[in-house]
C-alpha cells in the first residue's frame, strides 16, 4: 500500500531539525556568552501574549514562518494551525483537511531563561486524526517521531512506555501553567497536592508539554497531565505517547473520556489504571476551548 504521508513526515523531520538549529543556537549563546547575550539584546526581546508570564520572542515567530513557508512550497493545499499565527489572529479550527499543527518553540519560558529543555513540535492531522508527530528536543538533540499504527521512535530507536502499574511507585509530570489568577493557581495546587499525597515517588515538569509527553513515551515518567495546554503543545506528543503503548484521555468523569485535542486538557499515561487514578485526583476545570471563537 502506498504510504501517502511518509513524504510529509520526512519533510516535518527536516523542518523540525532546521527549526531546532535556529532556536538552539540562540539558547546556547545565551548559556555561554555574556557578551553576545548583550549584543543580541534586541533580537531577544521578550513579548507577552495572554498574560504577563505567557512569553513569546522573535525566534518563536521566525521559526514558525520558516516551517510554514517550507511546507507551503511542498504541500500548497495543506492547512496550518500554528501557535504564533493563531496569536496573530488566524483561526484555530481543526477540519478534516490535512493540517500541520505547529508549536515552533514549546518551552519559550525555558528558552528565554536558558533552562535547557526546548522543543519544536509538529503534528499532522487528517480527518481530525493525528497521522504523524515530530518533536525535536533541540538542546538534547533528540528527534522523537511517530506514525499512526507504526510505532514511536527516538533517533530511530523504538520507544515503549513504562510497565509500572502502581501509581505509588511512579513519577508524574505536570506543569503550573501560565495563569497567575489566584483561584486558578489554587485549583492547580489542590490537584497537585492530591497527586503528590497518593503518595507518588515524585512530581516533575520539564517546562514543555511536548518533552513531558516524550518522557512518558520513553518510560522515564509514568504519566503527564495538564489543564490549560493548547492543541499545538500536544498534537505531536499525543501520537508519540499512544504509539509507544500509552493511553490518552480528557479529565471528565471517572474514566476521563476520549482525548479532545481542542479541550485544553490532557492525561497521557503508560496505562489506563494510572491515567484514571490521576483523573480521579485532579480538579477538572475547563478553560475556554482552542476552537471557541471568542476565546481571545
Ligand atoms: O508557549 P509555549 O512555550 O509554546 O508552550 C506552553 C507550555 O510550555 O507551557 C506549559 C507550562 O504550563 C507547557 O506544558 C506548555 O507546553
Ligand atoms: Mg507550547
Ligand atoms: Mg510555543
Overview of this protein structure:
By secondary structure, the protein is α+β, with helices and mostly antiparallel strands. It has 2 domains: 6-158, Fructose-1,6-Bisphosphatase, Chain A, domain 1 (2-Layer Sandwich), CATH 3.30.540; 167-281, D-Maltodextrin-Binding Protein, domain 2 (3-Layer(aba) Sandwich). 36% of the residues lie in helices and 22% in strands. The protein has 9 helices and 14 strands. The chain has a 7-stranded mixed sheet, sandwiched between helices. It has a 5-stranded mixed sheet with strand order 11-10-12-14-13, sandwiched between helices. It has a two-stranded antiparallel ribbon with strand order 1-2. Helix 1 runs antiparallel to helix 3 and helix 7 (209-217) runs parallel beside helix 8 (231-243). It is globular and about 50 Å long. 1-O-phosphono-beta-D-fructofuranose binds at residues 83, 103, 105-108, 175-178, 207-209, 226, 229, 233. Residues 60, 83, 103-106, 108 line the site of one magnesium ion (MG).
